[in-house]
Amino acid sequence: MNRALRIDVAFDFICPWCLIGKRQLELAVSQLQEALPQQVVSIDWRGVQLLPQLPAAGVPFAEFYRQRLGSDTAVRLRQAQVQEEAAAVGLQLDFSRIARMPNTADAHRLLRQAGELGSPEQRERLLERLFAAHFQLGEDIGDGNTLLTIAETCGYPREAMARALYRDGRPFLRSGMTASSVPHFVFDGSLQLSGAHPAELLLRGMRTALGQPQRRSLQA
């Protein structure tokens, strides 16, 4: 049996490129396992809080990006670019429904707690649900009650998950992995790749980590 391939991914819930990168990674894993049916792949999504300085209640989303990019026109152009890239991997992002840029510290704590209480498949459902809450459903993932309701829909006990939340905006700190940008992929603890790269490049990274020969079509 092939040894398991471990992939660590640094991410934040408010980064659309992390969700896009997740879809590209899923495609790459599918392609790898099509070629190597017995190959086991273990993926650990490791939270990195991009904006730890945000207040616990977050800030108005539209104003945040207006100040960050300089104008409403610049915001529209950037969002259109992101939506186009998302659509290419089957995602529909609805920025118009996002009222606040949330502080994601408790969302990361919730996902970490989920790893201790549930199965990997259940944690994956929660991860997907939290991404959808922010980018598609307009739910405030900085709000503790919203987080707990989402966790319950994924089968987690509310009381146990509530113990993971601080609700005061304290930064989320997780040891063992640092990244200056997200998404950031680490294959087998050594080979690293930053950015929402196409599945082709992620597949090449996985094959390199496994010591597999590269197909001609994967060579840049």
Automatic annotation (TrEMBL):
Residue ranges of every copy of the DSBA-like thioredoxin domain listed in the record: 7-165
InterPro entries: DSBA-like_thioredoxin_dom, Thioredoxin-like_sf
Signal peptide: none
SUPFAM superfamilies: Thioredoxin-like
One Pfam family from the record: DSBA
CDD domains: DsbA_FrnE
Source organism superkingdom: Bacteria
Identification of the protein by name: Disulfide bond formation protein DsbA
Organism: Aquipseudomonas alcaligenes (Pseudomonas alcaligenes)
